[in-house]
Design a protein that fits this description.
127 residues; seven-stranded mixed β-sheet; four-stranded antiparallel β-sheet; mainly beta; globular
Length: 127
Amino acid sequence: QVQLVESGGGLVQAGDSLRLSCAASGRTFRNYIMAWFRQAPGKEREFVAAIRWSSGGAYYVDSVKGRFTISRDNDKSTVYLQMNSLKPEDTAVYYCASRFSPYESRWYSGPGSYAYWGQGAQVTVSS
C-alpha cells in the first residue's frame, strides 16, 4: 500500500525559507509523478509543483516559479519542496501526492488526477 508522509512544516517570517519532505513507500515509483499541492483556509486545493521520479523533470505553477524547487532523492525515496522567499500568501496546508504516469510529455495539475495523498503539513508565513 502506498504511503506518503510529509514533514518539515512550521511557522516562519516573510522572506524566510523552509523545506518540506515527503517520504514515499509501498511500491516502486519509477513511472510515477510526485506532486505538491496546497490548500489555504476557505480555498480550493491548488497545484504547486510536480516531478517525474524517473527523469527528474519538473513543472511549477507560475506563482512559485523562481522561489520553490522540487527535487527527489531516489535512495531515500523522498521528494522535497524547497521554498525560498516565502510570502504570507504561501500560508496553507501542503500535501504530497502521487500518481502513475508513464508518459514523459504529460503533466497533471488537478487534485482529482492523483490517487495517493499524504496527511498534510502546515506552513504559516507571518508578515
